Amino acid sequence: MPYTLLRENIDKHIQFSDAEFETYSSFFYPKTISKKEYLLRQGDICRFEGFVTKGCFRVYTIDNDGNENVLYFAVEDWWVTDIDSFTNQAPALLSIQSLEDSEVLLINKKDKEQLYQQMPKVEKLFRIMTQKTLVSLQRRLIRNHCYTADERYLHFIKTYPKIAQKLTNLQIAAYLGISHEFVSKIRKKIASKK
């Protein structure tokens, strides 16, 4: 099942033959992560890129004032990493923590580089995925600058309903850049309109 999900994800971006996918997937290894366990801690070096096959992770940083700022949540069929730390093998600016019992398929930097050499399609695959990630981040930046807090919240729950159901007000607030009290007020306002 985990590798089937990986195949379905890859097929959205590029077509591999069965033999190519078998080679590609052989470079990944499965890892089970318990609820609240860290896949990566801020300050450590990120030695993996991961594909989530089960569960939910929060990818976040702690600022100088001790506030948590969530960059994104990664659920089943999402990729997870600290791309800066992974690429540059520098201390991570992000922590990656499981919000529930989770499973991931991981690939390390050396194996990914070997795949680039062995299978040119892999480089195209990750270029396409990187472009899609940049588009998503650009759209999020625009929303953060141009949308009201209410609009950001409504967009989040409409776009990611499965993720929103798994999260606390505090976690959603850390993602949206607002207080958890404000999230509670928005939820009450929405509930009163129904």
TrEMBL record:
Under Gene3D superfamilies, the record lists: Jelly Rolls (2.60.120.10)
Residues forming the Cyclic nucleotide-binding domain are 31-118
**Which SUPFAM superfamilies does the protein's record reference?**
cAMP-binding domain-like
Tell me the superkingdom of the source.
Bacteria
Which Pfam families is this protein grouped with? Answer: cNMP_binding
Annotated InterPro entries: cNMP-bd_dom, cNMP-bd_dom_sf, RmlC-like_jellyroll
Q: What is this protein called?
A: Catabolite gene activator protein
Q: Which organism is it from?
A: Aquimarina atlantica
